[in-house]
Amino acid sequence: MPDSVMLTKAEMRELDAEFKNEINKEKWATVQFNPETLKVSYANQIATPSGTGDQKGTPARLFVGAGTTKLSLQLWFDVNANQGDQKKENDVRKLTQKIAYFITPQQRGDTIIPPAVRFLWGSFQFDGIIDSLEESLEFFSHEGVPLRASISLNISQQKITEFTFRPLASPLPGSEIPGTRPLTQAVEGGTLQGMADKQGKGDNWQAIAAANNIENPRLLQPGTILNLNLK
Length: 231
Hints:
mainly beta, Membrane-bound Lytic Murein Transglycosylase D, Chain A, 3 helices, elongated
């Protein structure tokens, strides 16, 4: 079997209340599919002074706060795709609950607050608190069990700071840069052999099926995301 590409996966880690130390490693979560985009937005707290209504021209505006920085992203989960080394789950909510943990308020001394979270992906790092999470269940089995879901996250910090650039580990010889090869989504009635053949990899479909944990290459769930980038 050809060597598979080592793909760096994004992670979510819990931080202490001071946003300094990573804690509760057993609660850390590795995403199943890396997000397609990361949107970072900044907002200053601006106010118009009172008593300027009778003045001509544009009234002065004052900076009145430290501002905020927000990270927005979307994550996908699919029980029919590779679930890594963990126990294979048949209900996608068993996968998404690891992300939902980070918006669930926890008892911290005399207060109840959501955990501080650190989002990591390669050289990108963002620390904050999840202020909104929206989960959409996208596909169901015949028994009514949700199989695929998307999660939209907004993580905020109450300040504006420069980007944090984390050092990258040295790539293995012959490995590719993560994110430079796209994943492929299965369509209605598509087969793994047909998808591989369209990319000139028809002779390698068995290795691709094994790398993606596909048990029946002729019966793919529509929307299943596959890595066809094996050499």
